[in-house]
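We were asked to recover a plausible sequence for a given structure. The inputs and outputs are reproduced exactly as logged, with field labels preserved.

PROBLEM: sequence recovery
POSITIONS: 213
GIVEN STRUCTURE:
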């Protein structure tokens, strides 16, 4: 499946990705793990209000989003498809990085761009020996039979690289469950392996934990 066709499929799943992003935003608390988490809340008048015992956060500025995705996944130069998708949609991303700037169009842009960068990642790592890969080091990318253990291993590596922390057990279970639900009943072959990996990669790279600062 081409990168652009993959993006169209992922846009259909954008509500699921947004749900995952919001869930991740609420997973880390001051009393929980050491990762990111909820850092601010809207008051009744729509302004940002600092929460006790939390740090004030912002989100990435528009100019940094594509470069940060490429950097954390280690894909090198973005493909033309990734760059074109970014250029076509970057106007939805906050230029100032305000913490309350998250909108549905912005979330869809993050999903669209992340899907293309994750497609680039699959192309790069499929052509590399497992020892030379950054994310999919244990998965057989040329066949079916992708295991949940393979998904968890890749998810852990994306979390450390793109979230700057370890994924929690609950988050890993959520990711694997979302992938299983999204592709339930499809033929188990190399194409399904690719779709599952890109789906997982996109959901994590477009999530709040990869976007906040």
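RECOVERED SEQUENCE:
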């Amino acid at each position: 499946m081409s990168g652009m066709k993959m993006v169209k499929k992922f846009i259909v799943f954008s509500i699921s990705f947004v749900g995952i992003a919001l869930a991740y935003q609420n997973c880390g608390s001051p009393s929980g793990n050491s990762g990111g988490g909820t850092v601010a809340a809207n008051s009744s008048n729509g302004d940002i209000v600092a929460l006790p015992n939390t740090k004030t956060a912002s989100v990435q500025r528009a100019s940094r989003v594509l470069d940060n995705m490429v950097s954390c996944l280690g894909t090198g130069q973005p493909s033309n498809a990734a760059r074109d998708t970014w250029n076509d949609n970057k106007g939805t991303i906050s230029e100032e990085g305000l913490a309350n700037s998250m909108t549905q169009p912005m979330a869809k842009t993050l999903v669209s761009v992340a899907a293309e960068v994750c497609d680039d990642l699959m192309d790069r790592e499929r052509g590399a020996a497992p020892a030379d890969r950054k994310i999919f080091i244990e998965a057989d990318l040329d066949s079916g039979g992708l295991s949940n253990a393979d998904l968890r291993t890749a998810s852990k590596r994306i979390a450390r690289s793109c979230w700057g922390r370890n994924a929690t057990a609950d988050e890993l279970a959520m990711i694997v469950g979302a992938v299983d639900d999204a592709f339930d009943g499809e033929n188990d072959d190399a194409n399904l392996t690719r779709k599952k990996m890109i789906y997982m990669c996109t959901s994590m790279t477009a999530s709040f934990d990869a976007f906040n600062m």
